[in-house]
Amino acid sequence: MSALAINPAVADPAAVAAAIARTGAILHGHFALRRELHIDTAVRFRAIGRDPDALAVIAAQLAGLATWRWPGARVLSPESAGFFLGAAVARLHGLAHAVVETDVRRLPTATLATGELAAGDRVVLVNDVGSTGAGLEPMLDLIAQRGAQAIGVLLFAVVGADTFAAWCNRRNLMGHHLTVARWGELTPGAATCAGCAEGLPLVPVTEFS
Ligand SMILES: [Zn+2]
């Protein structure tokens, strides 16, 4: 079973699957999603970011899900691995790209690192992986502070499509995801974790983002 299920709404799922496979972005091992949440599969989006052809396919298929009006919009992404995807989407549609700093846990902050955000800007948020979407809240805060307007969110992978959709609804955003991470068998703690039972070294997934 693949670690990432491709969104059935994607125009060319085979191209997406091939792009992901050839970059080696899917890792198998013993990973900590959070301290008490261990998983056996992780996505290293940076591997896709380093492959311009794969990234172009991913960006085009993800952006193709969006129904909003692209001209004049601005892309906002964090400076972590999501930066590559934000840059690729901006390139695809000839848009300006602004970037926020990340904190020590490599989560987006409300501090602009590069680019501009002005009052009245229509902003599309782009990131690699989101669990609920809530990690993007600081970026929404920044957009609100600047008097700009968030129109939508594009994520390479979500952990739960329903959870992400619910968050988008609450924030009144159009949200689209390319894949769903099959992290359904989350094994909290050592008692049920095969990696812990085998004594495998535990790697925080933030190492890869
Ligand atoms: Zn474990």
Write a brief caption for the model:
With 209 residues, the protein is an alpha/beta fold. Helix content is 31%, strand content 33%. The model has no long low-confidence stretch (mean pLDDT 89).
The level of helicity is: 25-40%
- According to CATH, the fold-level topology is Rossmann fold
Model regions low in confidence, pLDDT < 50 over at least 5 residues: none
User: How many helix segments?
Assistant: 7
Write out the distinct hetero groups bound to the structure.
zinc ion
Gross CATH architecture: 3-Layer(aba) Sandwich
Cα(first) to Cα(last) distance is 23 Å
The coarse overall form would be globular
CATH top level class name? Alpha Beta
- Overall strand count: 11
Q: What portion of residues belong to β-strands? A: 25-35%
Count of domains: 1
Class by helix and strand content? alpha/beta
Secondary-structure element order, N to C: EHEEHHEHEEEHEHEEHE
Q: Report the major sheet.
A: 7 strands, mixed
Instruction: Indicate the mean pLDDT.
Output: 89
Radius of gyration: 17 Å
Order of neighbouring strands in the sheet with most strands: 1-9-8-7-4-5-6
